[in-house]
Every structure is written in structure tokens, then in C-alpha cells.
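User: Can you predict the 3D structure for this chain?
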Amino acid sequence: MLNLILFGPPGAGKGTQAQMLMSRYNLHYISTGEVLRNEIRQNSQLGMKAKQIIEAGGLVDDEIIVQIIGNAIRSENRSDGFLFDGFPRTYVQAYILDGLLTRLHTSLSRIFILEVPDNVCEKRLLQRAKEQGRSDDNEVVIRRRLEEYHQKTLPLLRFYESQGLLTKINGLGTTEDVFGRINQHVLEDINSKPVNLILFGFPGAGRATQAARLAQDFNLTIISTGELLQEELKAGGNVGEQIKPFLEKGLHVPDETVIRLIEKKLHETAGNSRGYVFKGYPRTHVQAYILDGLLRKMGRSISCVINLQVPFLELIKRLDARAQTNSRMPYDGTAATIVARLEEHEQRTEPVLDYYRVHNQVIDIDGKGSSDEVYERLKEPFVRTIRNLR
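Assistant: Here is the predicted structure, written as C-alpha cells:
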């Protein structure tokens, strides 16, 4: 999940930037004032307690604030993260927020502070007061608000700076300029997360094409068991001799051999990219467990599974057309051979897909149309999945 806090003095343009971030990244806005008003409107028990305190001229204590903020966080499941405004305001509340997010198995991604000189903020606020006819926003009130902001915010900034989460943003310039500076850091955070995906699809679904594009655009390494086996066969060593009879007969190579080839590839490419695209593996339940184990040894896991869905008739047409080219595969022979291959894939691989569906990791993509059309359909949900990685 993408969880952000946006700090900034009154008049820094924080509200505008918050709206742009929420719109771009589907974030849920959580403001202390807003959630308090919402609880009061609902006449909840917490809302009534808060109302009594406010009407008596007091400040709502942290015990109530934490419960109200906690309710707001737990009740939201449609967004891809949170944008906090007006919370936390104190050291205590900063620890409270850490605790709330930990319970959701997530954490803060980054804290932004818009840096705008006080004289600029004052000028902006006076102009806004004039345009909106707000006589209460005079120079004395504005300066007091700015003073209060600096007094309360400085300790919090030190708290987050020590955690390496704080990013200072030049708040001068156009709205688009400022958002561009913020967005650059957000994209860096999103693109720094390790990603490991499996590309499923029947023969002829276009896995090779889509794997290549994903690898190029997201700095991923493709691991194709078919290619690994062919490389060993061409090398002509002991492994090549062992797997040759299996490949000639169209049989599955023993898992122990395939595991060693994948391990070798993972070792050779470790640190060269952001993660991996697995194509042609796993093909069985056993292999799904094996892959989990291989990645766990590296401190990684499967991020998502992209399943390219293409109707059987379309697959047969594609494979038949491929059989007439230099790209033909051993099983691209007759229509009967193609159908047998598709049926075998369905029997062996579809249950593996169900394994990942149980964990809500599967993204089903309509695989019909041009490769560009298919890629555009899969790119958006894939990017969203990356953004939501914990």
C-alpha cells in the first residue's frame, strides 16, 4: 500500500497537492477533523464523547483520536493506500499511527513537507481571504497560525527524519511543478519494490511477447524453463544428455533437474534486476510449492500471477499459423497435436492457477486482440498490484 503524510504550513498548497495525489493513486484521505466530524454526524458513542469535549472547549484526547482514526483506516478497503492530513500532530500520535498501520501489515511509505517561506504563505492566505470574503483571516491570525505550525511540526519532522522517511519539497512554482517534484519520489518508492510474477496462459496465448515487454518496462529478468532446457540441450553436457529423451518425447523433465536449472539462473542473475517473470513454470501443484521455496531462500515471494485468457478456437488458429513459420514449436504439427497439447495444459496447469486464486494473486486478462492491446489491458492492474505491495 502507498501510505503518505503531507505536511505544510497554511497557504503552502497542501490541499491541492493532496487532491492530486488521491486522484492519481486512489488514496483515501484521512483528516483528524474530517473523521471527528463524521463520527459526530453518525452519533456514534465515540462521536458523542468527542462532541461533549469540543463543546466544553477542550481538546479531544489521544484515546478517542486513536479509536476514531483506527475505525477510519479499518473501514476503508477500496483504496490503494492512505493520505494523512492533520494526523499525527504529536510524538505520541506518530507512534500511534505506526501501531495502527502495523496492525494492517503495512507502514508509512513517505512523509512530504512542502517548504514555502512564511511571507509567501501570508501573501497567499491574505489573497484567498480577500477572494472568499473571510475577514477572520487577517495578518495577526495568519502569523499566529504559521507560528503554531512551526512549533508543533518541528518535533514531528525530527521523528520522521530519523527514520529516513522525510522528504522536503520545494513548494514554490505552479501546482504542476510542485506535484511533479512530489510524484518523482512516489514513483521511486513504487519502482524500488521487488516484483516477482508468473505469466500464465495456454500455448499460443502470447506469453513470450508479454513477458518481454514486462521485463523491459519494469526491469525484470525472464526465467523460462523451456529456454533453460533448450540451452542445456545445445550445450551438450551431462544435463543435456539426461533431458534429451524427455524433450524428444514431449515428456516433463524431472523436477529435480528443473529446480537446479532455476536455482542456477536465480544465482547468476541475482541483483541484476528488480525481480523475475516466470514463464512456463510452475506447471503443477508440486512446482508451485517448489517455486515458493526457491524464492523464500532469497527473501522473496510471488507478487502476482497474470493469466492470459484466449478462447480455444483462437489458440488453435494462432498455433496453426505459427506452424507455418520459422517460430514453430515441436507440438505445432497437426490440428490433432495442437488440441492434445492444449488439453494437456488444461489438465495440468489450470489446478495450479486455482492454487494462486486462493491467495487472491491472479489477474485475469483478456488475451484477444493485438499484442499492444493486450499489454495495455494487463499493464494497469499490474502497476496497481506493484503499488499495493506491502
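DSSP finds 16 helices and ten strands in the chain. The two ends are 6 Å apart (CA to CA).
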